[in-house]
């Protein structure tokens, strides 16, 4: 893989992504418009009611009195310039709030996915190498238990055990609010806060990787080239590292790319339970408050993230599998 | 060192409970001397590959394990060695070459890396010395441009080159014993001959002992010094190659040798008066490139280029060529399983390629196919009678009638009617291919297109299926379009032969004439590459009577 090749591939993928993202935006805009109620209804509801003339005036102010097509056109014209508009709930530009929240979500997703991937792959490989033994049964059963437990339940049980009973870990939030830690103390503080959310989010996905990796390794072990390597006099460790793992990882990497978007969705629940100021929690509140601009901004951001992650997965895949050429 | 390199005494290999026999190998005695090629011959299931596994101590234990006997390598019993010492012997003193060069190499590592691994495992050579040795080995197995192959991945080089790489890998530490497990079975005839020559040449240079496992007596005739014949795990015959090949003693060996299609074509039959049932005109098919490799544009591939032929009623036309010659594409086009770019296929006087989807369904009953892999081409979840009756039922036959007819057809292909209610996996390869033939016959076609119908079968089964095909052809006045890579098979069955190379017909004619006097250099080369062409199997039928 040469750099110029990767760049030209990236450019092509970027061009392909533009219509995809636009289509997503138009689609969600129309869907949201179809849902009953708008920002004004929510605002007025919060105020405890207002007279009809005032409501009309608010609608006109926000441009909500226009036909849907006009609203759509106005929104799309702004979004192509990366202008996300104004949040009438937070009374701030949408972009500012998204930017504040993005870091937390990426941190949570990154840590839980890499944790799930690493541990899942290792446990899966171990289980496969000792297939049908006690170790394998224990690992597989554990995976099944994690898989079958809903994340909200897992989260609540962890809070009950580690925060309420044992008092080891903080209940929620991303940092101790009044402590104003700096430097490493701050990093440690954030890490402590993220342990439970990360665990809750990663345990479910871990079982996916575990099962796939186990099946994949079992398949690769049977292949001819593994037998060739044995006939060359290679030991078990060498077989595993050089011949089996690299080939067995391929399907798992595919799943990694696909699951990224699911994890984004899963983080809504976990962020809400642990009161993490991330995109998921923001999305949830925006739906309740009919904060149209905010919601559209979140969806736009998520679409971009998914496109980027898919691109990175493809690059990784091409790097891992010599038979695949970028085009 | 005196004495044999390898000396196997009374080797027995046990199969798991519930297998078709308790021992995969029941008492094998075999020795290989330095500088000698010993061929271990047998059909599938004879236990020949397990012998290799036992020597390397790479049997799928504990299900399959050595139950008795000794394997002496240079005087030491391999079975008694601890795994550590065995690991040191594998790849260094004993090397193995496998059948399928595509799958036997790791797809994710470069060729150079994989040969290098042997050196890294068994020597203390530094990186530079290892690289020099790898390049030297690649050159030794006659790979053009070793430096570029060194950095290539297995999928980037051809099948023949891959097998050369495999050989280079096994020979780079000058092992005393090389186990070659069907090393040329997956290769084209011309490549096969080159590889056999290479093995001979290197063996003479290195003076190693070679245990050559094969099912092909042609290859045996080409390469063996001594022969050991295995049947169902029993050693039935052994001796010098010339003796076993020309004067086999055991009935099983005689049966095997009789089953080999002789290179004697049938007497030309006259089809001048017979009507043409299948006429192909100007068939062309181009495959568009599947994206540029590493950015470079790849050419479009012309799989079939302006191909025309006639097939008369009752006639068998062979389409012969090596892999990539376009012969399978031809069979797919004339049955319209693949759309041609241009050209016409007249079946029964009507152009099949111009038919509307509805007319095509009607036309399909006239031309049916028998596929290569009888395992993969029968739906595993359907009973045999439903597989056979499905075609007629789709075309409007009453299901009960169609099933009754399926039973008749089973009898026609010499299977018991009781087979009708069983599933495909309960049958052997040869029986499955008979079911495939019955399935094709169910539509009462005029033409049967057979794509390598016997290449997945053992030689004795192959002979039976070929005989059945010839028999049915004569009784039902069928016309056969017979696609094969095996010239022996073509010689036995086909009235006329088309030789294809790179999508074009290079030569065609009556089989007997073409075999006796090939005009085109490529045909000459093909005929010269048939393994064991210098050996005519002895006529055993007369003295057996």
Detailed description of the structure:
The complex is a heterodimer of chains A (327) and B (545). Chain A is mainly alpha-helical and 327 residues long. Chain A is 78% helix and 1% strand. Chain A has a two-stranded antiparallel sheet. In chain A, β1 and β2 form a beta hairpin. In chain A, α10 packs parallel to α11. Chain A starts with a helix and ends in a 7-residue tail after the last helix. About 1% of the residues of chain B have low confidence. Chain B is of the alpha/beta class. Chain B is built from 20 helices and 20 strands. Chain B folds into three domains: 164 residues, P-loop containing nucleotide triphosphate hydrolases (Rossmann fold), CATH 3.40.50; 73 residues, no CATH class; 196 residues, P-loop containing nucleotide triphosphate hydrolases (Rossmann fold, 3-Layer(aba) Sandwich). The longest helix of chain B has 18 residues. Helices cover 36% and strands 23% of the residues of chain B. Chain B is globular, with a radius of gyration of 25 Å. The chains are: A mainly alpha (327), B alpha/beta (545). Chains A and B meet through α9 and α10 of A and α2 and α3 of B. Chain B: One of its GO terms (biological process) is transmembrane transport. Chain B: This is Peptide/nickel transport system ATP-binding protein. Chain B: It is found in: Cell inner membrane.
